[in-house]
Amino acid sequence: MEGLTRRDITTYWRRGRVYLFGNRRRSSCRL
To answer: Where are the domains of the chain?
Structure first.
């Protein structure tokens, strides 16, 4: 946690959020 800065956490969170949304879209398309 000490090594990660606030900016890194925000970037990582955004990536995770986009990744999750991408999976949801793929799942919806398959269904």
So the answer is: 7-31
Dist. CA 7–CA 22, nearest whole Å: 22
Quick: pLDDT tens for 1-31.
Answer: 567 788 888 888 887 777 666 667 666 655 5
Separation CA 31–CA 23 (nearest Å):
12
- As given in the structure block, the two tokens for residue 19 are 């990744």
pLDDT at 30: 56
DSSP string for residues in 1-31:
--SS-HHHHHHHHHHHHHHHHHHHHHHHHH-
pTM equals: 0.35
